[in-house]
Amino acid sequence: MDVLDAIKGRRSIRAYENRAVPAKIVEKLIEAARWAPSAGNIQPWEFVIVRRPAIKRRLAEAALGQSFVEEAPVVIVVCANENRATERYGIRGKELYCIQDTAAAVQNIHLAAYSFGLGTCWIGAFNEEDAEKILETPLGIRPVALISVGYSAESPSPPNRRPKSRIVHYETFRLTPK
């Protein structure tokens, strides 16, 4: 599969078939995440794979009632290991680099899932403290994204995108004339 086709073809999926995702495929999604770039190769990510209905239900509640989180066969919670990032880069590692690095890992999961015929959704709207309690994360491990994973039961249309002429700047930041 061409990577640009995957980037343009994947969608945020919020409805899933009642079909299990094989553990081997979930392992491949984590493998894709492990190969994301990271500042200084610190690899400040941790992954919690959730399949238990009771835990998914609680995560859906923490995700402001987004019920599709509970309905997905798998939820991957991507966490930033702030301790690991801080050791080398101090506060910038904790507040920026580990977030950037985990975001790259999240994107890799989405693209790999799409290549396996799976649908995913990146959920950032959730109560972080509730998620920490639900997942029993230790101090310094920050949940930054929930990813619902499953076989899609919907086919959303492509979303609109801003034209390149409105978002690309050359040499300095200046608005491109209309």
Average residue-wise pLDDT: 96
The main sheet comes to: 4 strands, antiparallel
Unreliable parts: none
Order of helices and strands: HHEHHEHEHEH
Fourth CATH level, the homologous superfamily = NADH Oxidase
Task: List the defining traits of the structure above.
NADH Oxidase; 178 residues; four-stranded antiparallel β-sheet; 7 helices; single chain; alpha+beta
Quick description:
The protein has helices at 3-9, 23-34, 53-62, 68-71, 82-115, 128-135, 164-167; strands at 45-50, 74-81, 119-123, 141-150.
Q: What topology does this entry show?
A:
Blueprint: H1 3-9, H2 23-34, E1 45-50, H3 53-62, H4 68-71, E2 74-81, H5 82-115, E3 119-123, H6 128-135, E4 141-150, H7 164-167
Antiparallel strand pairs: 1-2, 2-4, 3-4
Helix pairs in contact: 2-5, 3-6
How would you describe this protein?
With 178 residues, this protein is an alpha+beta fold. The protein has one domain: 3-Layer(aba) Sandwich (NADH Oxidase). It is 44% helix and 16% strand. It contains seven helices and four strands, in the order ααβααβαβαβα. The protein has helices at 3-9, 23-34, 53-62, 68-71, 82-115, 128-135, 164-167, and strands at 45-50, 74-81, 119-123, 141-150. It has a four-stranded antiparallel sheet, sandwiched between helices. α2 (23-34) crosses α5 and α3 (53-62) runs antiparallel to α6 (128-135). The longest helix is centred in the middle third of the chain and has 34 residues, at 82-115. The chain is globular, with a radius of gyration of 17 Å.
